[in-house]
Amino acid sequence: ESLHAARIEHATAVVSLLSDPDASQRMVKAVRLLSPSIPIVVRTRYRLEAERLQQLGATVAVAEELEASLEVVAQLLSRLHVAGNIIETLLDVFRRESVSLRPVRAPRTTMDSLPPQLQQMPISSHLVEPGQWAIGRTLAEVNLRAMTGATILAIQRGASYITTLAADERISDGDTLYLIGDDSDVMLARQLLAQGERSL
Questions:
Q1: Percentage helix, strand, coil, to 5, in the chain?
Q2: What CA–CA distance (Å, rounded) separates 122 from 126?
Q3: What SS3 state is found at 34?
Q4: Are 172 and 142 in contact (CB under 8 A)?
Q5: pTM (two decimals)
Q6: Mean pLDDT, residues 158-185 taken together
């Protein structure tokens, strides 16, 4: 009666976050009696409960047990330095026969969790000072990697950091550029940024 009074048959979707699996099953049955086509998304604790709910008519049943298990697997493989695309492929295989809504993706790797060889890669900084050639030019125009072999990892601009660098990002006076490369590459990069292509 409550669902009918709420005009559930006209709803766009129904989402259930009930902790009681029996109540969730009754809810799915009741909604299906009123509307055979409305999407029903249900959260439940265990995979078998999720399977039962889908058999009763739930469109999607998210099993916390499965999601937590896959998250653990993803974190483990990441710490073992398995490549992110391999982790995601394995997770997709694991979930093909499961009932799950949220795709678990490979965890992002922080610098301190990288292999020691990568943690020790030299990162240099370069402050863009007034009058330097790179000011006002885009990263594409500077073409640092092709010209010098060094790569800009990030830009500090004031109190903020730009870590996703687009080709049309312009270098500004006062920017601090974080460079990765051999000493000779970084030396050439500093020269290019300060004086332009003719200095190389």
A1: 45, 15, 40
A2: 13
A3: helix
A4: no
A5: 0.49
A6: 93
